[in-house]
Amino acid sequence: MRAVDLIVAKRAGAELSDQELEFIVNGVATDAIPEYQLTAWLMAVCWQGMSFREAAKLTDLMAHSGTILDLSEVGPTVVDKHSTGGIGDKTTLVFVPLVAAAGLPVAMLSGRGLGHTHGTLDKLEAIPGFKTNLSTDRFKRQLKEIGMAIGAQTKEFALVDGKLYALRDVTGTVESIPLIAASVLCKKIAAGANVIVIDVKSGSGAFMRSDKEAIELAEMLHKIGAKLNKSISCIVTDMNQPLGIAVGHTLEVIETIETLKGRGPSDLLEVCLSLGSLALTKAGRARHDTEAREILSDVLHSGAALKKFKELVQAQGGDARITDDYSLLPNAPVKYPVVSHQHKSLWVKEIDGRRVSSACNLMGAGRMKQGDNIDLAVGVEIKAKVGDQINNGEAIATIYGKSAEQCKLAAGELEKAYAFSEEPVMGLKLIKKALN
Ligand code: URA
Question: Which residue has its alpha carbon closest to ligand 1 atom 5?
Answer without folding.
Answer: 180
